[in-house]
């Protein structure tokens, strides 16, 4: 692990350390000496002493396929929003490696708590991508059964889900199960009290939870510097668990580090924080206008670190995939896009009476009364139209 | 020329600008309020002109935003805080309810907390969860807070000036679906009292009371009812804490009937309080029970259902008809 938890034992030293790390923070984003990387932007494999990984050609192609299909799904959703089929879309463009790498590190019995942008993780969990679109279309507030894929509903209120993940992990530990929990959040969310409290609880109860922060450099218009003056992964130290920064555009590094962290959690060694250093290539959501707060050069710089391109370079150079493979994948992408488009267009609006469903599990007299009144009110239009 | 036609959001922007210009102690704080100008562009250009020390992009932490605003106010500043959307005020609810609302009383009046919390609220914009709620009753229920909501650009301008000038904490709810509605603002006028309700359309048969985004719906309903020969008076409450019961009472004494309209759920909402008080005050004038039109006892629905959830013209007119039928 990159950082040992010395803070709790030696508060004075940690105070001294803070000034050094504050200086480090100024070097961001270039202060990447601590960055775990296994695949360079040029598509070269590099070794890391702690996080060795030796994927088979099939596994490499699988990761590539996941990223390509996820990007295509995301692009299709963005288009659907432009065409008025979705009210909003939060694109994951640029974050495919962070999501696929971490998502493919999971075991079936692990549990995931996402934010609202984890489309790639959902893909890895086997959630049908069309299910993710219901809430963005405005026909539901979630739309899938979290327990059928161990993938919780999206959470819009920033940071809340990190506490749910921690509590769920506490339950896993109480049950004596050896599963782990993976909680996603953003660099902006790291400022929320809930996230700090989830760090405290998970450390105190040694909960088998891995915190996966996708630092995509921006929280809407605010850069990471408006959230923290030390690299985010270093925060873990103060809570007494390890933190590590990984190249978030390197799918292999994300896979290796998340695997190690989940394994650590499963074997009773408690929580860990992973900061995936990545970049949000698009707007925050389709309602956002990033030209107001960031330069086009910044995006161009990050394009050279594209997570998909670098794995493609590796696959091609090593002869692990040929043109026929890429062409076939392209066809598969087209088919996915079409399936998603058709499904969204066919997605019906909910029935009016859905307003009165599922507010309570056990029923509620007030809801019953309002349902009856509303039904009567609706019926009065029909009666009027029919001239009865 | 002081009078100018502007949108409700521009009026808020102009009001914040005036406040920043006239009092160096005024600060703007919130998420994305700087370069972006807020997600609704309400603070557009203010950071450019007043600097990052006065217009402060905060970390993404609502409890932190309100908690530090309290500290700044204790130190003599007058923070105007922006909460990005209604549904995101709850991480700050603890600070607002347990601290902001009570410190004046606890200090036996020695401590004043001139903090304004601006919250874009309400539905009708096709947004996802937590972006369309009307939590005003949750704040009005708390002693120590004042809760207001403008319905037009002029009130948006003036009520915010008055809120910033107030030594009490004020929750200023902005009807986000009216941000683009334009009306006349006279920045040289002398505004009326902040918490006074206003009769915005006189009528004889029934009083419609509304505030914020629902004033327009109430006015539209009154216009539609007029075509059927019904004379509806519309009262814009403007303030939910305190509530100007006198103005409503005077109106109801004339019309004999009252329908209260708001987007928030009817159950234990602002309308419930008004119905109870007006029944106490006007029992012998009332020719029908006070009716309420509002949201249901359900979470704010996905956007494809919000037209059913929100009180529209039909539901308001239905209530008007029921009240007139007594
Ligand atoms: C409590 C709360 N406050 C404000 C918001 C509005 N909001 C939605 S996303 C966002 C930025 C989040 O940034 P970050 O955590 O870095 O995640 P990213 O969207 O970049 O993936 C904000 C301010 C919210 N959803 N919840």
From TrEMBL, chain B:
Cofactor(s) needed: thiamine diphosphate
InterPro entries given in the database record: THDP-binding (IPR029061), Transketo_C/PFOR_II (IPR009014), Transketolase-like_Pyr-bd (IPR005475), Transketolase_C (IPR033248)
Keyword Protease attributed: no
Residue intervals of the Transketolase-like pyrimidine-binding domain: 6-181
UniProt keyword list: Oxidoreductase, Thiamine pyrophosphate
Top-rank taxon, per record: Bacteria
SMART domains in the cross-refs: Transket_pyr (SM00861)
Descriptive protein name: Alpha-ketoacid dehydrogenase subunit beta
Species whose genome carries this gene: Streptomyces niphimycinicus
């Amino acid at each position: 692990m990159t950082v040992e938890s010395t803070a709790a034992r030696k508060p004075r030293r940690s105070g001294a350390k803070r000034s050094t790390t504050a200086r480090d923070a100024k070097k961001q984003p270039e202060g990447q000496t601590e960055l775990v990387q296994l695949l360079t932007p040029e598509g070269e494999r590099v070794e890391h002493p702690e996080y060795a990984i030796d994927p088979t050609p099939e596994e490499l192609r699988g990761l590539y396929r996941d990223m390509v299909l996820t990007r295509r799904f995301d692009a299709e959703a963005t288009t659907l929003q432009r065409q008025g089929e979705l009210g909003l879309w939060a694109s994951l463009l640029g974050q495919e490696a962070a999501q696929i790498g971490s998502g493919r590190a999971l075991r079936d019995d692990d549990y995931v708590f996402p934010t609202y942008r984890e489309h790639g993780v959902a893909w890895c969990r086997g959630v049908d991508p069309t299910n993710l679109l219901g809430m963005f279309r405005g026909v539901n507030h979630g739309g899938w059964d979290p327990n059928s894929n161990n993938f919780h509903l999206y959470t819009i209120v920033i940071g809340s889900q990190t506490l749910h993940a921690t509590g769920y992990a506490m339950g896993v530990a109480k049950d004596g199960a050896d599963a782990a929990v993976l909680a996603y959040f953003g660099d902006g969310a790291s400022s929320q009290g809930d996230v700090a409290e989830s760090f405290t609880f998970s450390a105190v109860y040694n909960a088998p939870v891995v915190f996966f922060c996708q630092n995509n450099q921006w929280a809407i218009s605010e850069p990471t510097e408006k959230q923290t003056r030390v690299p985010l992964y270093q925060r873990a130290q103060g809570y007494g668990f390890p933190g590590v920064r990984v190249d978030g555009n390197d799918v292999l590094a994300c896979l290796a580090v998340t695997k190690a962290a989940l394994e650590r959690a499963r074997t009773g060694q408690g929580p860990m924080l992973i900061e995936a250093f990545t970049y949000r290539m698009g707007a925050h959501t389709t309602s956002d206008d990033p030209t107001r707060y960031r330069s086009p050069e910044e995006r161009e710089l990050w394009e050279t670190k594209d997570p998909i391109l670098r794995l493609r370079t590796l696959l091609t150079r090593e002869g692990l995939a040929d043109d026929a493979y890429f062409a076939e994948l392209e066809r598969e992408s087209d088919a996915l896009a079409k399936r998603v488009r058709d499904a969204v267009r066919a997605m019906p609006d909910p029935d009016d009476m859905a307003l009165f469903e599922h507010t309570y599990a056990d029923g509620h007299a007030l809801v019953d009364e309002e349902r009856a009144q509303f039904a009567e009110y609706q019926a009065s239009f029909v009666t009027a139209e029919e001239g009865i | 020329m002081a009078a100018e036609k502007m949108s409700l959001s521009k009026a808020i922007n102009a009001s914040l600008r005036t406040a920043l210009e006239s009092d160096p102690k005024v600060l703007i704080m919130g998420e994305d309020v700087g370069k972006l100008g807020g997600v609704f562009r309400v603070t557009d250009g203010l950071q450019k002109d007043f600097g990052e020390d006065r217009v402060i992009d905060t970390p993404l932490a609502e409890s932190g935003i309100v908690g530090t605003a309290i500290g700044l106010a204790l130190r003599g500043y007058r923070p105007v805080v922006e909460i990005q959307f209604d549904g995101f005020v709850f991480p700050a609810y603890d600070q607002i309810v347990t601290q902001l609302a009570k410190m004046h009383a606890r200090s036996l009046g020695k401590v004043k907390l001139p903090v304004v919390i601006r919250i874009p609220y309400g539905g009708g914009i096709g947004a996802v969860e937590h972006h369309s709620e009307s939590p005003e009753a949750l704040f009005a229920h708390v002693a120590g807070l004042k809760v207001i909501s403008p319905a037009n650009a002029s009130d948006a301008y003036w009520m915010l000036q008055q809120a910033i000038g107030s030594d009490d904490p004020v929750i200023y709810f902005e009807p986000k679906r009216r941000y683009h509605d334009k009306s006349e603002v006279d920045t040289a006028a002398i505004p009326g009292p902040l918490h006074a309700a206003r009769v915005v359309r006189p009528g004889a048969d029934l009083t419609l009371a509304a505030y914020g985004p629902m004033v327009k719906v109430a006015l539209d309903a009154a216009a539609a009812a007029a075509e059927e020969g019904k004379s509806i008076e519309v009262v814009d409450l403007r303030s939910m804490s305190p509530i100007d019961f006198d103005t409503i009472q005077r109106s109801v004494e004339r019309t004999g009937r009252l329908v209260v309209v708001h987007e928030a759920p009817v159950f234990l909402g602002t309308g419930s309080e008004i119905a109870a008080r007006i029944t106490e005050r006007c029992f012998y004038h009332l020719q029908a029970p006070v009716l309420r039109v509002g949201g249901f006892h359900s979470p704010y629905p996905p956007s494809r259902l919000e037209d059913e959830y929100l009180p529209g013209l039909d539901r308001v007119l239905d209530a008007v008809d029921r009240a007139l039928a007594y």
